[in-house]
Every structure is written in C-alpha cells, then in structure tokens.
Amino acid sequence: MNAAAENILGISERRARGQSLLQLVDDEPEMRDILARVAASGDHYANEMRLAPSEVHNDERIVDCRVSPIVADNACLLVEITDVTRRAQISRENALLIQHGAGRQMIRQLAHEIKNPLGGIRGAAQLLERQLSDAELREYTDVVISETDRLAALVDTLLGPGGPPNKQPVNVHELLEYVLRIIAAEDQRNVNIRRDYDPGLPLIGLDRDQMIQALLNLVRNAAAALAGQGTLTLRSRAVTNFTIGNARHRVIASIEIEDDGPGIPVDMQDSIFYPLVTTRPEGTGLGLPAAQELISRHGGLIEFESRPGRTIFMVRIPLQQVVRDD
Length: 326
Fold this sequence. Notes:
Blueprint: H1 3-9, H2 13-16, H3 21-24, H4 29-41, E1 45-51, E2 61-72, E3 75-83, H5 85-131, H6 135-159, E4 168-170, H7 172-185, E5 191-196, E6 204-206, H8 208-226, E7 230-244, E8 247-259, H9 287-296, E9 301-307, E10 310-318, E11 322-324
Parallel strand pairs: 5-7
Antiparallel strand pairs: 1-2, 2-3, 4-6, 7-8, 8-10, 8-11, 9-10
Helix pairs in contact: 5-6, 7-8, 8-9
C-alpha cells in the first residue's frame, strides 16, 4: 500500500494492515466482483467505479480501478486505483457547455419560427372580432387572442433577456435571501431551509436581475421536487484552481442548491439542460436552460449531481482573471 493508496482510501498502511480491501471501500459491490473475477480467471481487469463518501472524504469519488494477477510473497492480486474525479468533472463540464450551446441555438431558432406568425394571427383575430356582433362568437376570438398572447410570452421566455450583464458588486447571500422570500410567498410552508454560507465570500460583479432569475429557477425547481416537505439547503463556498471549459480560474464562487427529494431520473440526467425537457407535468422545461444561459453570460456554469435523497445544483462563478489551459 503506497502513499497514493493511503490518500484515496483515507487510511494509513499501519491501520489498514490485516483488513480486507473491501472493508476499506465499504464493501463496494463492483470492487468485490472485480477481485473475485480476476482471482478466478487470472485475467487482467480494468473499470471505472464510484467510491461512496466516507469519514475522510465527504464527496463521492470516481476512480479507475485496475486489477492484475501477480505472484509475489503471499499476494495474488495487484490493485491499482487512480482518482479521476476531477478529470471526469472537466469532461462533464465540457459536455454541459456543448449541450448549452446546442440548446441555445435550437431554442432561438424555434422561438423565431413561432414568433413570426403570431402577430398575424393576433391581428386577424382582432379584425374578425370587430366584424362579429354576437357576443358569444366574440368569446372565441378572445380565446384566440389570449392564447396568442400566452404563446408570445412563452417565446419571449425562450429568447431570454438580451444584452450583456450589467455587472455591479453584489452580495450573493443577499440575493439568496431575496429568492427565499419569493419562494416563501409561494406557500412552501413545510420545506425546511438550511443555510451554510461562507462569510468570507467577497462581493462579486454580477447582474443582479439576471442572477436572481437564475437562482430563482434553481431554488423553485428544488422546492417543487420536495412537494412541500423536506430540506432545502443553500450553500456558498470559495473554490481555488477551478476549471470551466478550457479556462482555469484562480478563485470561483460556488453556490449550491441541495434538496433531499426523489432525485432526477437517470434516463433524463443527460438532457435536463435542453429546452422543453421536464420531469413535472406542469413544467415548461425552460427554467434550467434559461438559468444556464444567464450564468454563462457571467463566464460561469451550472453543474449538478443527483441520486434519490440528494440532488445538488452547483453554480460556478469566476472571481478573478482566468488562466488559459490551452
């Protein structure tokens, strides 16, 4: 057991001596299967797996695990574990950026195609309404006008607010508290709110209105996932040496919105930032793409992790000048 293994497993060689490797990884089923398979077949085996949070490591980690048969003293297996969590995160961030770009282009094209004929439909309905003397018939034209206005509002949401952000020094915690007041007014009475703020987080140059809209979309989704019962946690941290796309930032602000609801279905996790994708019957599927667009205007990115009982959306906002990695 070398120093890297001690770090990954969170235990010293002296304390680990005599214990089963499976004990050190909380009897991870995939690890147990790999060890048994190599011991039985004598073949080499490699796979990527996830290690659950432990007392030493608070977060789930992704590792490359390679197992080889050997003959050395009393040992019969060589296990090599490499922590690739950050590499996997960077790959996922790049995928999110690509998804966001494709989604943004798609919704803008869709919105323009819808918006062009709406004005003509509304105008024709108004002209028809003037020719009708029967009040009952005018009710139908009222429906046409009303539904046209509703579609126009939806298209405006798809297009989103234009222009670059109007950045001013902002206290992120004040924005979060403002969003919570809005959510409270929407009758989430049984949701337990937990705050875990970093008091040392400085003021950040942000567009207040755009950030409120982005955070409101995320917090509202989390509250809706709880269906009125559960815990909603808001967390802030300063994170150093963080990469977004191909740019490495010396310091970023990480704002996390966590809920203990049922989680996002696995088959939808790769597409939730595309427009019109939603898990709720009453949802529009526009909240997450709009939030990602608004955060991207600040050079940031929204990431997420989700499993039953724990879903976290992480807003990453740069604080300092970037260092290019290319």
